[in-house]
Write a structure and sequence with these properties.
By secondary structure, the chain is α/β, with parallel strands linked by helices. The protein is built from 8 helices and 6 strands, in the order H-H-E-E-H-H-E-H-E-H-E-E-H-H. The chain has a 6-stranded mixed β-sheet with strand order 1-3-2-4-6-5. A hairpin with a 5-residue loop joins strand 5 and strand 6. Helix 1 runs antiparallel to helix 5 and helix 4 crosses helix 8. The two termini are about 20 Å apart.
């Protein structure tokens, strides 16, 4: 891993800028779910992971309480992640159709996965100052990916916050529209591709299907040219 990104990830893991989130992460990690009662939770902010030479970045809003907060890896250990990695494997982005833990030898092809917020917020609703506190980390992650061409946001909240950070950084008024599969140009030349979130609710209500997600990532690979 690149020294800059490695140092950034260490800083992320040790961050305690948001007392509300620190308290909630501790609560989640000590009041475990019954099925995870014997596990040692990661219980810290969750950094991104993947290939440093990535042309594609996949962005969520925050780690799941008993997913990333438990395993230490974004979109790992919950049903949303199970659905996501099954689709990523189908299009040749992931070497496995699952992501279990930090020692499962998972590898991503030209892809980096992270969240805008590194800690799980209560009720999955971050406060604006918490998003702001984490924005520098998110910005640094993307700046570290020198070959990045495409950003896929998973869910409208991740999309809205990603757009908000770009608007603030580049001081632009351009309107961005959230629509599954829609690609739009960001002010620094990157392509923003929006997707519905692969949550159990969205899958069960058929708002998103395996085919829709697979088609979206095929499009992302084509746009990113890998």
């Amino acid at each position: 891993m690149d020294i800059r990104l490695n140092n950034l990830n260490k800083t992320i893991v040790n961050c305690k800028k948001c007392p509300r989130l620190v308290k909630f992460v501790h609560k989640v990690s000590t009041q475990k779910r019954k099925q995870n009662i014997n596990e040692i939770y990661w219980g810290k902010p969750v950094p991104g992971f993947g290939n440093l030479n990535s042309k594609l970045a996949i962005i969520g809003l925050a780690p799941a309480a008993h997913g990333g907060t438990r395993t230490g890896r974004a979109f790992t250990g919950d049903k949303s992640g199970d659905f996501l990695f099954k689709c990523l494997h189908e299009v040749g982005i992931s070497n496995y159709p699952y992501s279990k833990n930090l020692k499962d030898n998972l590898k991503l092809k030209s892809t980096y996965i992270t969240n805008i917020l590194k800690c799980v917020p209560p009720e999955d609703k971050p406060l604006s100052n918490e998003i702001s506190n984490c924005s520098n980390f998110f910005d640094e992650e993307l700046l570290s990916l020198k070959k990045l061409k495409v950003i896929v946001t998973l869910g409208k909240v991740a999309f809205d916050n990603c757009v908000k950070l770009y608007k603030q950084k580049f001081n632009i008024k351009k309107k961005f529209i959230f629509k599954h599969g829609k690609s739009q140009l960001l002010p620094n030349g990157l392509i923003l591709l929006s997707s519905y979130h692969p949550s159990p609710r969205n899958v069960n209500t058929k708002l998103i299907s395996n085919k829709m997600m697979v088609d979206l990532f095929r499009k992302a690979k084509k746009l990113a040219k890998f």
